[in-house]
Amino acid sequence: MTRLRALTRHRLFFPLVCLLLVLLLNVVVTVATTGSPGPFFQISLTNGALNGPLVTILNRSSELVILAVGMTIVVSCSAGTDISVGAVMALSGAVSIWLLGFGELKDNGYHVESYVVPYAVGLLAAVAVGALCGAWNGFLVSKLKIQPMVATLVLYTGGRGIAKVVADGQIDKVDVASYKWLGNFIQDADGHNLMPIPTAIFIAAAVVAVTAVVLRRTALGMNIQAVGINNKASRLVGLRSNRIVLVAYIFCGACAAIAGIIATSRIGGIDANNCGKMLELDAILAVALGGNSLAGGKFSLSGSVIGAVTIQALTTVLYSINVSADQLPLFKAIAVIVIVVLQSPDLKPLLQRAGGVFRRLALSAKRAGGPA
Amino acid sequence: MMRASKPWQGLKANFYGNNFLVLITVVLFIAIYVAGVFIYRDKNFGSLNSFFDMLNSNPGLIIIAAGMTMVLISGGIDISVGSQVAMYCMMFAYFMENRQANAYAMILIVLVTGVVFGLVQGALVAYLNIQPFIVTLAGMFFARGMTAMISPQTIDITNADFMALALRRIQVPFGGYVNAAGVYQTPFVYLSVVLALVGLLAVYAVMTWTRFGRNVYAVGGGEQSARLMGVDTKRTKLAVYTFNGFLTAFGGFLFCLFSTGGAVEKAQGFEMQAIASAVIGGALLTGGVGNVIGSFFGVLVQTTIVKFINFNGTLANGWSNIVLAVIMSFFIILQSVFAYVRRRRE
To answer: Are B286 and B264 in contact (CB under 8 A)?
Structure first.
């Protein structure tokens, strides 16, 4: 009994239950449409690539997982959200393609047919751009003490604008095969898949692993939480809180850039208007679903990762019951409301009070109905 | 300020206060506008028609920015307003065109829907203590999804009563110009602009001269202190979100009078435009500070920038976002400097 209580009190209990519920929903829908739960768990190997709903969910959630990792750190140490990550994704993707092709304009938009600079340079440039954006956000938040949401509103507004100017208002395409590796599978020259698992899953796993190791093995993780819980106090005990906040934002920007690289690689090009659109909100949602308080302080990286996968699993189940992409947010909203209301610590006393009122009403009704 | 023994001391305290930020916004707006008048002399930038155009295309944003400012002053945030506007537009379009609903009945229904929407959001924020960002994020998703549920199509409004309201012009007898064909263009505003300005003044009056308005400032300035002073903070928050729901529905109605149609993609990013207007107008997201009139000038500054880029004609549309971002940076850095100066003085 005590062990059960300890289990339910664990901070990952609730996020995990949510994930399992959504997966269960997936199974139910699969049973309803095909008659058996088999297809949902089926993983097949075709042309050297793993296929199946579970793989797809993990693959599609990679960008969100990476964004959620960066967002978790930012939320933890600055008690605010970075709403510019979607725009930073678009901007870093646009810059890397512009650099790779060096702006050769073809008939409709840029078509990069061969790299002008090595591929790695393009990727590094994207990450550098992301980090630079993060540094700007971090500077505004840590040095100028501007509320994170307002500070990042600047790049939210302007980032996509710069991306559009860089891409010249066109949808740029990259026609080099290797560009699509990161968002799909690593292939040899004949188009055979060399790696059975989608590359994006590796990247997301690597980002999570490296972040977790760095935060656990160094004092950084604890320092970030300390700054988030009380900025002033942690400065007084000798932490350079400003620098920690700055580093967190730079890291978040870099994460956004990595997510941007994957997103542009998936479609083999950049659409500055739609790359990473509304993804900042999903990332914040993932953090909240993972049981992290948006008011900062203690955080759980694994919670955010679970939250991100939950969102993607929910999206998958909704698509499979023919909910259109436009209607999707409605169901997401209902799920969010149910989850956060259940998580609210104020729910229990409120229900008890309501229960008390009902009981008193019932009691007085009984008295009124009894002998005078 | 009240304790100042000499008049100029109060003035000096005010200099670094919030009203000064509003003043800077006003000055900036006038500066940009006058620059536009000189740069685009040949394109009638300076005519009253051109100024009224800015108001005519933004009646919804004026009201929604005012509502947003109120929510920000209370220390909260409401990012659902853009999606809500899309939903209200779709309600108007769908029920009037596909269900032959009466236009005036629809206005009432939309306003009531707005109040209910705000009431639910407010209850979640105030009584369950869920962060406003998350609650209104869910509201944002909900309203956008609901818009697609009502109808995934783009519907244009042709309802006679509604279009009569939408096209109702109030003409001004002076300040026009003679166009290339030699015809005098009389400047005019739409009825929606008049409604928006009346609404703006009403919100300003409520925030300045009523107990509710002062409670909102108190709750935003410090919830604990407000509670100790005897303010019912939960009820105040509930009222703020409910009132904002009403204002959003009203703004959605005005927006619909301008755009006369419903579509899933309508009013995307509207919430950020409203927040940007409030920030340019001197509101702080930490709460307690802000001015509804300032946010109106925030709207005007944004609109003027877009107008500049449009009048130029050769710049990519990304530039208006970039310039807006630069102006926002300018304002938030200015706010930060003022906050620093204030801290130093204390």
So the answer is: no
Looking at residue B287, the DSSP 8-state letter turns out to be S
Q: How close B86 gets to chain A, by Cα (Å)?
A: 12
Q: What are φ and ψ of residue B125, in 5° steps?
A: -70, -50
> How many domains does chain B divide into?
1
Which residues on chain A are in Cβ contact (under 8 Å) with B280?
Answer: none
Contact B84, B248 (CB under 8 A): yes
Q: A347 CB near a chain B CB, below 8 Å?
A: yes
Neighbour count for residue B67 (Cβ, 10 Å) = 29
pLDDT tens per residue, range A216-228: 899 999 999 999 9
A48: left (phi over 0), alpha (psi -120 to 50) or beta: left
In a domain, B145, yes or no: yes
Q: Is residue B104 part of a domain?
A: yes
What is the DSSP-derived secondary structure letter of residue B155? E
Tell me the whole-structure pTM to 2 decimals.
0.85
Whether the CB-CB separation of A246 and A133 falls below 8 Å is answered with: no
As for the ipTM of the complex, it is 0.80
CA–CA gap between residue B145 and residue B153 (Å, rounded): 13
**Closest to B288 in 3D by CA, of B17, B14, B2:** B17
Q: Do residues A248 and A142 make contact, with C-beta atoms less than 8 angstroms apart?
A: no
CA gap B330, B299 in Å, rounded = 16
Q: How far apart are CA A263 and CA A92, in angstroms?
A: 11
